[in-house]
UniProtKB/TrEMBL annotation:
<feature type="transmembrane region" description="Helical">
    <location>
        <begin position="41"/>
        <end position="65"/>
    </location>
</feature>
<feature type="transmembrane region" description="Helical">
    <location>
        <begin position="117"/>
        <end position="136"/>
    </location>
</feature>
<dbReference type="Pfam" id="PF11750">
    <property type="entry name" value="DUF3307"/>
</dbReference>
<keyword id="KW-1133">Transmembrane helix</keyword>
<protein>
    <submittedName>
        <fullName>DUF3307 domain-containing protein</fullName>
    </submittedName>
</protein>
<feature type="transmembrane region" description="Helical">
    <location>
        <begin position="86"/>
        <end position="105"/>
    </location>
</feature>
<keyword id="KW-0472">Membrane</keyword>
<dbReference type="InterPro" id="IPR021737">
    <property type="entry name" value="Phage_phiKZ_Orf197"/>
</dbReference>
<keyword id="KW-0812">Transmembrane</keyword>
<feature type="transmembrane region" description="Helical">
    <location>
        <begin position="211"/>
        <end position="230"/>
    </location>
</feature>
Amino acid sequence: MIFILLILAHLLGDFVLQPNAWVVDKESKKLKSKYLYLHVLIHTVLSFIFLWNLELWWVAALVGISHFIIDAAKLSFQNIKTKKRWFFIDQILHIGVIAGVSFYFNEFNFEFLKTQNFLKIVMAIVFLSSPSSIIIKTLLSSWTPAPETQTGIQTESLSSAGKYIGILERLLVFTFITVNHWEGVGFMVAAKSVFRFSDLAQAKQRKLTEYVLIGTLLSFGMAVLTGILIK
């Protein structure tokens, strides 16, 4: 219960009750920003309010002090290139402190890590990520569409976007199957078809359409088969 309460306090303090103007001011003035200390105070007060137990005052104080240290480190060391990386490091450290407090109160039981069902799900998730991407890429390697300079077709896209889209769609399909909502798989197929239709229609190239169709069917097929085998 302590973990859930402190996570809720963290979400409210770090996202809902922190205006963008505060973030900009902290990034420009760093430790001299008054909003850094106000932000830490809000986290401390929220933690105390959600716990609502005078005996746990030290937990709220620990959350506040650790939040100041982590935020101060982020503001001191991050730059434009590492800003995204430090955002996730910051969040992981905050959640780590909360998890540590919860572990102190014996709220966590890690016995589930040893169960066969959990290990099977982890194995499936790992397989549906990079291994599946590599397998599909290898299978389609002989049919890779020609670059834009040869076809005159605009094929510009985000770096590695196709890889991550494939991973996300496979994980979503796997999730739908494991929770017995097969209609979600149909929704995914329909949604991807709609988003892809305009691009393929603009390209007016049958080979590209077939390439995308084969890749999509392989991706969905792997996720469906994996889901069935795990169940």
